[in-house]
From TrEMBL:
This is Pentatricopeptide repeat-containing protein. Pfam families: PPR, PPR_1, PPR_2. Belongs to the PPR family. P subfamily. NCBIfam families: PPR (TIGR00756). Keywords: Repeat. It comes from the Eukaryota. Residues 1-41 are annotated as: Disordered. SUPFAM superfamilies: HCP-like, TPR-like. The keyword Electron transport does not apply. Gene3D superfamilies: Tetratricopeptide repeat domain.
Length: 731
């Protein structure tokens, strides 16, 4: 509501004031005082005359340049005396006042003089800015004293400088706007003494602001009951504000009683009145009472609007009753009520939630045919439905269609799509959207933070994940099991095991029990630090609490045993897993094979590989890299070459260290052509060979007289081996 838009002139309150005063036992009101400022001396009068004459005669020039000669002798007293001389030239008043306050903050009296002139000259916006400016400057002072002093000066300057009671309405509105509700009520009471009653528009503004504050609803009720005694005549908007306030706190019966009271007081309810209470009944899920009011509207000749129906349709959609919701939608159209974007969006969202995309997109197309523009909420509903059903490409297309139409995605839209990408394992796309979201100043929610944090931890970006989670906690978002696991994972990654254990204890206190992921994460950090006894303790605790270990749990233990060279314990664990029906995977076997390769025990490595294949466990890329490097180290180049062909056939990728091992092994066997081919292939893939291999090919090409390629390799070796850090090889 705009309080200054179409408010009745407050001076009308003066005409009704005797009636109000008689009800209070008062017959007359206090007259406004006459203005009598300090008198200037003869010298001051001459100075003021020179200033006023100069700015009048040279009005086309900037005031600052005109008044340059007067700056040194200008005092704050001169301000009002000059204003007296130029009061009828409003533009000149403003220019001079602006010049004066650039030098020094003007007195409250001077500000009130210009406020009165602005209102009298029909420039209420300027007066509003001046009043708002006063309260902005008074923010650090005693509000009570500032208020009293300001009102005193406003009353003091009223009679001789403006005499337009609208000025008090504007002050009242500004006090309400800045949240000084008590001061606004004090002003209301004070002005009654002078026969001025605030306009109903201003009083409605107060009601609206009070009712939007849950802690101030009681004051709104007081104002609604007391102000009519002072001459304020509430209108339909006043009742609508109060009914909306009661509906927001779900006191719909009270709102309904206000609806009945309106008619008794001769203030006929309008469509907004009924729609507000209908929405209230829908909020508390009393559908039948809402439908009764719709029928009552019709009997009174009031035509429901889209907002009326949307409340009912929204309730039905939230309950999953989309067929009934569409039936109400068709009934609305039969009554010639034209649906708007909100109703279509409600229905689209409802159909998406139940997975009925054909109807959702049918309604979307119908929106377009009615020349209604789908908004961000409409698209978010479609995107969310598509993501929930694993149709991420369609959701992505829908998202970009939304942006191409100039619509702005909010936190919900981004979170819905990020969640979809995370569920599909497309973390790069999810992070890209997260970055866009933050750059736009949007705040990720619990789903966004938790999903991204988990993805970041899985990619080793622990610091970033922890920053996201700390940001989430700072915003008061409640942690869940997935969030706790992300935190535990992050803490373990940075080596803060003690805090991770403490966090697991906090989970229990918070009523959230650690799951297999929680325990496995803690076991992993103990295994990596060589504390296998502690890892076993965590496993026992996990089993005692009835938590079933996963294959990841066993692989963590296997890696721990193998990293410490405890191959016998690793073999025992593998046997125990098979006995208990836990099927190992490639990662389980890879850990054992890698350690045997390091020990150059290729007989045992091959035996484990055969056992793995016999169990029906398919090898992965890491399996082949481990085997090839092991055989190269043992100079079994025939076996290494065979495994290389198998790796290529299955589409697995060789690591840089595997290429290095193969090339060196082939060189030693004098198979230079094969080594050269692999070296070229390696460079084409952007991988870095080690210094020894560069030296081999530098010598080879130089001996062959190929100076061009020799120099090229020399530059490359310097750049990649000496200037840049070596790439980490995960295998």
């Amino acid at each position: 509501m705009d309080p200054g838009a179409s408010s009745p002139h407050p001076s009308r309150g003066i005409n009704n004031n005797n009636k109000k005063k008689s009800s209070l036992g008062l017959a007359t009101h206090r007259p406004f005082p006459s203005y009598s400022p300090k008198k200037p001396t003869i010298r001051d009068s001459e100075f003021v005359h020179r200033i006023s004459t100069s700015i009048k005669q040279r009005r086309r020039e900037p005031v600052r340049s005109v008044l340059k000669p007067f700056e040194s002798k200008f005092r704050s007293d001169h301000l009002i005396w000059v204003l007296m001389k130029i009061r009828n030239d409003f533009n000149l008043v403003l220019d001079f006042f602006d010049w004066a306050r650039l030098r020094k903050e003007p007195s409250v009296e001077a500000r009130c003089v210009v406020i009165q002139i602005s209102v009298a000259m029909r420039h209420p916006k300027i007066s509003r800015d001046l009043i708002r400016g006063f309260w902005a400057n008074a923010g650090g002072f005693d509000i009570g004293n500032s208020f009293r002093h300001f009102v005193e000066q406003l009353v003091y300057t009223y009679k001789d400088w403006g005499s337009d009671p609208l000025v008090f309405d504007i002050v009242f509105q500004v006090l309400v706007e800045v949240g000084l509700f008590d001061e606004a009520r004090n002003l209301f009471d004070k002005m009654l003494n002078y026969g001025v009653v605030m306009s109903v528009g201003s009083c409605n503004y107060l009601l609206s602001r009070l009712s939007n504050n849950a802690d101030r609803i009681d004051m709104a009720i007081e104002v609604f009951g007391e102000f009519p005694q002072a001459g304020v005549c509430w209108n339909a908007e006043s009742y609508n504000i109060m009914m909306l306030a009661f509906c927001k706190v779900e006191n719909v019966d009270k709102a309904h009683s206000f609806l009945l009271e309106m008619e008794l007081r001769g203030c006929g309810p309008d469509v907004v009145s009924y729609s507000t209470v209908i929405d209230g009944f829908c909020r508390v899920r009393e559908l039948q009472r809402a439908l009764e009011l719709v029928r009552e509207m019709g009997s009174k000749g009031l035509k429901p609007n889209p907002y009326t129906y949307n409340s009912i349709i929204s309730l039905l959609c939230n309950d999953g009753k989309v067929v009934e919701a569409e039936r109400v939608f068709k009934e609305m159209i039969n009554y010639s009520v034209v649906p708007d974007e909100v109703i279509y969006t409600t229905l689209v969202n409802g159909f998406c939630k139940v997975g009925n995309f054909s109807n959702a997109f049918r309604l979307y197309d119908e929106m377009l045919s009615r020349e209604l523009r789908p908004d961000a909420i409409t698209y978010t509903a479609l995107i969310g439905g598509l993501c929930q059903n694993g149709k991420i490409e369609e959701a992505h297309k829908c998202f970009h269609e939304m942006l191409s139409k100039g619509l702005v995605a909010d936190e919900v839209t981004y979170t819905v799509l990020i969640d979809g990408y995370c569920k599909m394992g497309r973390m790069k796309d999810a992070f890209s959207l997260h970055n866009q979201m933050v750059q736009l100043g949007l705040t990720p929610n619990i789903v966004t933070y938790t999903t991204l944090a988990d993805g970041l931890c899985k990619q080793g970006e622990v610091e970033t994940a922890n920053e996201l989670l700390h940001e989430m906690c700072a915003k008061g978002l409640q942690l869940n099991i997935f969030t706790y696991n992300s935190l535990i994972n992050g803490l373990c990654k940075v080596g803060n095991t003690k805090q991770a254990v403490k966090l697991m204890e906090d989970m229990e206190v918070a009523g959230i029990h650690p799951d297999a992921f929680s325990y496995t994460t803690l076991m992993d950090v103990y295994c990596k630090s060589g504390e296998m006894a502690r890892a076993n303790e965590v496993l026992r605790e996990m089993l005692d609490n009835g938590i079933q270990p996963t294959i990841v749990t066993f692989n963590v233990l296997m890696n721990g045993f193998c990293a410490l060279g405890m191959l016998e314990d690793g073999n025992k664990l593998l046997s125990w897993m098979l006995d208990k029906g836990f099927m190992p995977n490639a990662t389980t076997y890879n850990a054992l094979m890698k350690q045997h390769c390091i020990r150059s025990n290729m007989r045992m490595t091959s035996e484990i590989y055969k056992r793995m294949c016999a169990q029906g466990v398919p090898p992965d890329s890491n399996t082949y890299n481990i085997l090839i490097k092991g055989h190269c180290k043992a100079r079994n180049m025939k076996e290494a070459s065979y495994l290389l062909m198998e790796t290529v056939e299955k589409g697995f990728r060789l690591s840089a260290t595997t290429y290095n091992a193969l090339i060196k092994g082939l060189f030693k066997r004098k198979r230079v052509a094969e080594a050269r081919k692999l070296f070229k292939e390696m460079r084409t893939k952007g991988m870095t060979a080690d210094r020894e291999i560069y030296n081999l090919f530098l010598d080879l090409n130089f001996s062959e007289g190929d100076i061009g390629i020799t120099l090229e390799l020399c530059d490359e070796a310097i750049e990649k081996c000496l200037m840049a850090k070596k790439s980490n090889d995960p295998s």
